[in-house]
C-alpha cells in the first residue's frame, strides 16, 4: 500500500466512523441493542485506534513541504498542549449533553465546568490540531491538522444551535464558550473547585506523560531543538 493510498484510506475511515453512525438512526439502534456504556466504550477505542493509524499514516505519506519547520515553531504545541489536556481532563464526562464527551443531564442551577466552557473537548481538539499545524508544514500534516481544526471549530456552533432549540436561551446564560468569571463566584468555587483541581492535576500528568512519550510513539521529539 503506497503512502498516499494508506493515508487517504485512514482519513476516509476516520471520517466515516464519525458520520456513518448518525445516518438513519444507526447510533441510537446500536445504543438500544448494546447499551450506552458499551457502545461508547467500543466507539471510543475504535476512534482512538483509527486516530493513531491516521497520524502514523500521515507520517508515512510522501513529504511535500509547504513551509519549513523552524525550531521556535515547536514552542507553539508545547505551550498549547498543557491547556488542551487540562480542558480534556476537566471536560470528559461533563453534565452537558450538547458537546463532545458530555453526559445527557444538565442542571441549570449547577452547571459545573460548563460555566467555564460548554465545549472543552472541542476547544482542546482545536488547540491540539491548530498548534501542531504550525510546526508541521508538509502537505499530509496540513491536511490532517487543518481538517481537525476546522472540524472542531465548525462543530461548536452546530452543537450550540441544537442546544438552543432544545434548552432555549437560558442555557447560554449559565454556560460560556470559555470564561474565567466562575472562579470569582464563591458559590461556584465551593461546589466545583476541589474536583476541578484534581482534574487539572490529571491533565498535567497526562501532558507530562505524552510529552515524554512523543518520541517513542510519534517518532519525533516534541522538544524544541
Description:
The protein has 225 residues and is mainly α. The chain folds into two domains: 1-62; 64-225, no CATH class. 66% of the residues lie in helices and 0% in strands. The protein is built from eight helices and no strands. It has helices at 3-19, 26-34, 36-60, 75-91, 120-133, 139-167, 170-174, 186-218. The longest helix has 33 residues, at 186-218. It is globular and about 55 Å long. The chain starts with a helix and ends in a 7-residue tail after the last helix. The mean pLDDT is 90.
Highlighted features:
8 helices; single chain; 225 residues; mainly alpha
Helix segment count? 8
Task: Give the low-confidence spans.
Answer: none
Shape: globular
Number of domains: 2
Straight-line distance between termini: 33 Å
Largest sheet: none
**Helix share of residues?**
55-70%
Q: Indicate the proportion of strand residues.
A: under 5%
Please provide the count of β strands: 0
Radius of gyration: 19 Å
Q: Which structural class do the helices and strands define?
A: mainly alpha
Series of secondary-structure elements, N-terminal to C-terminal: HHHHHHHH
Mean pLDDT: 90
Spell out the blueprint of helices and strands.
Blueprint: H1 3-19, H2 26-34, H3 36-60, H4 75-91, H5 120-133, H6 139-167, H7 170-174, H8 186-218
Helix pairs in contact: 1-3, 2-3, 4-5, 4-8, 5-6
